[in-house]
Each structure stands twice: as structure tokens, then as C-alpha cells.
Amino acid sequence: ACGLVKNLALMVYITVGSAAYPILEFLEEWGTENFEEISPAVIPQATKIFVNGCWVGIHRDPDMLVKTLRRLRRRVDVNTEVGVVRDIRLKELRIYTDYGRCSRPLFIVEKQRLLIKKKDIQALQQRET
């Protein structure tokens, strides 16, 4: 058990949090429907959107929304600590901007190829020294 704890401590960092307002604004611009705009009959077919655990609305094209959010996060237009979790089975999209979450770096793969290159790693190593 000690090795697992040590590895976790070396791999993760704790999020400091960011404001939820920019995410809520983005969701409104990108087609999230709030409760005043929808009828209850529509809810089971749509994906529910949660921000920091609060249900803020529904979206009818969650694939596009998730791809857009992740692209904006990778370009740092959205805070890099924002967590985007899609649960297809439950038809939920959970977005987290709060503090205190364990986070870790992930490698991004597109078309079965890593997007990070050797020059990127070398640039990071030079910046550390």
C-alpha cells in the first residue's frame, strides 16, 4: 500500500479552483437549454449538464460540446484545471471548476498517435532548469 500512496503523491496535483462563471457563460452560448426553455418531456432524451454538482440545464449535442470544451482547455481558453466528465450511460456531462480535486497529467492521443513530441518534452526539461 505504501508504494501506491507514494506514486499517487508523485503523480497528482491538487486543483486550486477557478470561477464557474466563464463556463456557465460558455454553456449558454453553445446551446445549453435552461429549465425555463424546455418541457419536462424533453429531459429523458437530452444530456443533463452539471457544473460543480449543480444541474444547470440540458444539451442535445453533447459530443460537440465535450469536443469543444476539451479543445478550448487545450488551447488554455478555458482554465486547464477544469474537469470535463461525460457519462454516456447516465446521459450526464459533469464539469468541475472547484478546488481540492486530485488531478494528473494525461497524454492526448489522436488517430492512434501521441500529440506530444520529443521537442515538447525537451522544452519542458529546459524550462525546469
UniProtKB/TrEMBL annotation:
Taxonomic lineage: Eukaryota, Viridiplantae, Streptophyta, Embryophyta, Tracheophyta
Gene Ontology cellular-component terms listed: DNA-directed RNA polymerase complex
Source organism per UniProt: Aubregrinia taiensis
GO biological process: one example: DNA-templated transcription
EC number: 2.7.7.6
Molecular function GO labels: DNA binding; DNA-directed RNA polymerase activity; ribonucleoside binding
UniProt xrefs under SUPFAM superfamilies: beta and beta-prime subunits of DNA dependent RNA-polymerase (SSF64484)
Signal peptide positions on this chain: 1-19
Primary enzyme class: transferase
Family: Belongs to the RNA polymerase beta chain family.
Domain RNA polymerase Rpb2: 49-110
UniProt name for this protein: DNA-directed RNA polymerase
Alphabetical list of Gene3D superfamilies matching this protein: 3.90.1070.20
Keywords, comma-separated and alphabetical: DNA-directed RNA polymerase, Nucleotidyltransferase, Signal, Transcription, Transferase
InterPro entries noted in UniProt: DNA-dir_RNA_pol_su2 (IPR015712), RNA_pol_Rpb2_4 (IPR007646)
Domain of life (superkingdom): Eukaryota
